[in-house]
Amino acid sequence: MKPALNEKDAYTVARLAELEIPQQIKNDQSPLVSSDIKRAVFLLMVAIVVIGSVVFFFYPNESGAAKSSVEEVLPYEKAEKNNAPAPNNPPLKSHMGLEVSGVVIAERQAALSSKLMGVVSEVLITDGMKVKKGDPLVILDQEDQQTQMRVSAVQLRLAKLSLGEAENELLRAESDQVRKKGIGEKYISNAELAELEFMVKGLKLARDRAQQQVELQIQQNSAAELNLEYTVIRAPFDGVVAEVSVQAGEVVTPLSAVGAAARSGIGVLIDPTSLVVEVEVPELYLSRVREGQKVKISPDAYPDIKLLGEVNRIGTILNRGASSVNIKIKFEEHSDKLKPEMAVSVSWLDANEGFTGDFAQKH
Length: 363
Hints:
The chain is α+β, with helices and mostly antiparallel strands and 363 residues long. The chain contains seven helices and 14 strands. The chain has helices at residues 7-28, 30-58, 62-73, 75-81, 143-183, 190-230, 359-362; strands at 99-106, 109-113, 118-123, 130-131, 136-140, 232-234, 239-244, 251-252, 265-270, 275-282, 294-299, 307-319, 324-331, 343-348. The chain has a six-stranded antiparallel β-barrel with strand order 1-10-13-12-11-14. A four-stranded antiparallel sheet has the order 2-9-7-4, with no helix packed on it. The radius of gyration is 50 Å and the shape is elongated. The chain starts with 6 loop residues before the first helix and ends with a helix.
């Protein structure tokens, strides 16, 4: 019978058993364990290859996609980087998303005013009215100008009568002088001949002064006629009345002589054929904007309307505060629905998009 083990010896034996058993199992089953490890490593490698293929096929490299997108969107910069000749007038692509807001303005417009101070007698125009060059728009009271015309006409007639009398007196004096010189010095003294010559010279001066007075009265008569014409304010060009600012009975004055109780402006006339779109294009896109590029214009008030436009002028001064450049776009189609100060959206077109305006056909 073996002696009993104390607690310390029992603990030591148990620890030795725990260390020996796994080593024995490892030595006895080493071929099986090695085979399982190889199989697991092989399956892991196959899984990595399969997952990598799927990721590469369905999720291409993000940096490569970004590079391709930049090259496609920025063909002009791509040509510069490759030292290749830049394309002539490269159009902005519609997929660039370059869409800016603009406003319709009339390049040809006139603030109507009077050249005379006067009371409005008649207003012949209304907002939106079409007029032709020379059509009367507003008529001022003409009583003062008509009175001036009558006075000037009388003064002109009097001046002409005075001229006629001076010419007749001169003619008589010259005839008398010739007659007396023909008689001879035996019958006419030198003193008398000298007196006749002095008289003729005086009559010539009187005739010249009468002639100048006639010319002065002609100028005054023309001025009176012009003032009478100024009482009728006419259209300076063919256009549409955009604003009427006066009513009958109001006092109007020239722009340079505005009074507290008088109006200087009568109205506004615009030429609808001079409408353009004014936009501010960011400085970042300026290198890709060219004169002659086609754009699509859509008024905010009529979103279904699409109009064709063309870049007409590119500003020469940069708006430093907004980092943008002012660009004028002309319409290739015109319509009565377009109005000054109307907000529009402008987008640049792809050269191959083939857009054509359809506003003319629908409206």
